[in-house]
Amino acid sequence: MTLEVPGDIAELGVFRGTGLMTWANLLESYCIGDRTKVVWGFDNWKGFTSFELQDGLENKNAQKEIGGFNPEVYYKELVDAIEIFDQDRFIPNKPRIKLQDGQIEEIIPKFIEENPGVRFSLIHFDCDLYTPTKVALKYLYPLLSRGGIMLFDEYGIHDWPGETKAVDEFLDEHQNLKLRTFSWTNSPAAYLVK
């Protein structure tokens, strides 16, 4: 859906990197001649460090707790996978994947300041929580190319009300946008097209 939309891909909440590597492999398969498209992975590599009231109650069964979904133990595996991926690409000397380390709500504004020309064709929200989702929507939506897609992994999922609330507040400010779902999967739970 975004092959002909200019811009990079952002993965917000990388965890083990399966989504990140999927996006990169799809670019290699379908955009082999376009070496400008990059997959940016944003994560703190520590899991959840805090919750807001909007995020609802902790739930250990869903790993919704401080330190939950901690990707730290997988970080080296991800870096190794990226190195292997880079060696096996059509043009291996130009990085296709770039990792950004830190709290999403803190690094996104800094990232945009350091990369003023960046635009996105696809942004995958998998940060689950209210504050990082709200901040990322504020800063990244203006950089989403027309026809670009935002995916929301936890929208409407009972255990993760924070992401849903942040998206709903964003949609209240952008009445022209409409959420959609894919009939063949529950993840991502919703998406919108700019």
TrEMBL record:
Enzyme class: transferase
GO biological process: methylation
Record's keyword terms, sorted: Methyltransferase, Transferase
Molecular function terms from GO: methyltransferase activity
Gene3D superfamilies per the UniProt record, alphabetical: Vaccinia Virus protein VP39 (3.40.50.150)
UniProt xrefs under Pfam families: TylF
EC number: 2.1.1.-
PANTHER family associated with the record: MACROCIN O-METHYLTRANSFERASE (PTHR40036:SF1)
Protein name: O-methyltransferase, TylF family
Organism the protein comes from: Leptospira interrogans serovar Zanoni str. LT2156
